[in-house]
Amino acid sequence: MIEGDMALGSNSLKRVRLLIVEDEYILASNLKEGLETFGYTVLDIVDSGEAAIQAAIALRPSVILMDIRIRGEIDGIQAAERIWQELQIPIIYVTGHSDQSTVERATLTFPFGYVLKPVREKELYVAIQTALSRYEREQFFYTILQGMGDGVIVVDPKLHIKYLNAAAETLTGWRLDEAKETLVTETIPFLDEQNQRPLVNPILSALETHQTVHISDGVFMRCKNGSTLPIADSAALLKNNEGAVTGAVLVFRDDTQRRLAAERDLANERAQQAELQLAEQQRLNQLKDDFLATTSHELRTPLSNIKLAIFLLETTLNQQGILGTEQVSQTQQINRYLSILREQCEQELSLVNDLLDLRSLEAGAFGLTVTTVHLQEWLPHVAQSFYERAIAQQQTFQIHISPDLPPLQSDLPSLTRIISELLNNACKYTPAGGVIELSVSLVPAAPTSALQILIRNSGVEISPEQQTQIFEPFYRVPNNDPWKHGGTGLGLALVKRFVTYLQGAIEVSAADGCTLFTVQLPLNLEV
Predict the structure, then answer these.
(1) Cβ burial, residue 115 (10 Å; 0-12/13-18/19+)
(2) Cα–Cα distance measured from residue 7 to residue 27, given in angstroms and rounded to the nearest whole number
């Protein structure tokens, strides 16, 4: 029974439509009469949980006044829970039961009010208006959340999912009723883009650090169907008015379009840089060509003249009999000085020639003349001087040439330079008693067979670190020149570029105290 009198009515109250769930008919009738006096519209009175659910679906009331102990298979609390989950209609419990267990059960359904019988007019009015105000406010925020383009996931402090907005449902593939109360770390895992390994969920990080956690690039979310989605944004704590943590929220968005736009921008930037680099490279190439054209004559001519002058001086001294006089000590000094002049001139001329050849190869200005080379005849002739040098240095020189090698179509000067430089290095770095091997064979390669040249020498093993630098200009393997021949440090750099120029490849390896250079060249050079 409603105690007291209160006659209130307005257009706003008439728009409030109520459903009463009460199994005591007289009490329900009195409640209906009092509510209509307030100006509310009472749609119906039902006396069971099942009937309450059916009436709520059919009538869609603004508020439901629900008794807890009612007829039927389910009580008012169970009916209220189902109505809220399916219809989102606010429930006010109107009951005479206030024991702890009942109140705790009712609280779990998030009711909009709890009014004890006997019902007082002001108390009921305030409860209904408060419920409507709260519901309107919550629906306002709910509409905002549902309308957001970003996904929103809310969890409690134990990481159980409490809410997904529409965008989150779309992005993850999970419906709220499927994901609710599941662990967010299990339902929505995060992965590293590079290795696909699991990452710490940003919600968990926010709860552990009590700080807002921003999602970095390269983070993927695994969706319900097993696909992955690049995401961005952040996770933050949820706190009540007292500052206590009540959960966490993850706001995220599909980062695919931003990544694609960034990749396009990066591709455009790289294309522009490539154009600038190409223009700069063309300018440098032109400078190289100009340098080669100018310095080739200017550098070689003086050194050639010095070399010729030394030869003529030596010839003149011989003709005048100065080098053949009985003054042995004076003759030896003159010969020594001439020898120094000759060697230094040869060394500088070799350096200049190597530098110019290197620049010509890098500029693509080195001329090629394709000729037919019969390796069985040509190779022993090239190796002869190195064979004699090896014998003089007490080294063993072995040469193996497959008898069935086909003729090679290549540039003979470049090929000679490659073989000579590699054999020169082998003789230079092999100690007395060491072995030098030169072998040539045919090996299968796409699209046709290729020529393979192996030059191996013992006594020297180049470390992996040195192998990565050995083809760089001016690099020399330290402490590996037992014969103290020296060199310009350009030999292997030139070999590398000559091999590339002949459309081949060269590798170096070392094991068991030996160093092996492997050269592969096409049988037919394409110009």
Answers:
(1) middle
(2) 19
- What b-and-e string marks burial along 117-143, b requiring 16 or more CB atoms within 10 Å of the CB? bebbbebbbebbbebbeebeeeeeeee
> What size, in residues, is the chain?
527
CA–CA dist 18, 474 (Å, integer): 94
CA max distance for the chain = 153
Question: E-assigned strands of 129-286?
Answer: 151-155, 161-164, 190-192, 198-199, 213-215, 219-222, 228-239, 245-254
Q: What are the beta bridge partners of residue 120?
A: 3
For residue 447, cis peptide bond before it (omega within 30 degrees of 0):
yes
Alpha-carbon gap, residue 449 to 520, rounded angstroms:
10
Tokens of 348: 């500088």
| 3-state class (DSSP) for residue 42 | strand
Burial 27-62 (b: 16+ CB within 10 A, else e): bbebbbebbeebbbebbbbbbbbebbbebbeeeebb
Two structure tokens written together for 369: 């003349």
Q: What is the spatial distance between Cα 501 and Cα 497, in angstroms, rounded to a whole number?
A: 6
Tokens read off for 100: 């702890």
The rounded Cα 399 to chain-centroid distance in angstroms is 49
- CA angle 370/375/377 to nearest 5° reads 115
The region, left, alpha or beta by phi > 0 then psi within -120 to 50, assigned to residue 155 is beta
- State the CB neighbour count (10 A cutoff) for residue 94: 25
Mean pLDDT to the nearest integer, 339-357: 68
Q: Which residue bears the tokens 């394409």?
A: 526
Distance CA 242, CA 325 (A): 115
Backbone region of residue 173 per phi and psi (left: phi > 0; alpha: psi in -120 to 50; beta: other values): left
Mean pLDDT, residues 264-288 taken together:
84
Query: 11 pLDDT exceeds 80?
Result: no
pLDDT in tens, 309-343: 777 777 777 777 666 555 556 667 777 777 777 76
Alpha helix (H) residue ranges in 408-463: 412-429
Residue 153 is predicted with a pLDDT of 92
Percent helix, strand, coil in the chain, to 5, is 45, 25, 30
Tokens of 151: 């996904």
| Owner of token pair 């770095």 | 429
Q: Which of 77, 85, 263 is nearest to 181 (CA)?
A: 85
CB 309 within 8 A of CB 341: no
Give the position of tokens 């009436």. Answer: 55
**Cβ atoms of residues 65 and 42 within 8 Å:** no
Cα separation, 438 vs 454, in Å, equals 6
- Is the C-alpha dihedral spanning 144, 52, 94, 64 positive or negative? positive
Yes or no: say if 473 and 482 are a contact pair by the CB < 8 Å rule.
no
Amino acid in position 428: K
Of 356, 351, 436, 357, the C-alpha closest to 391 is: 436
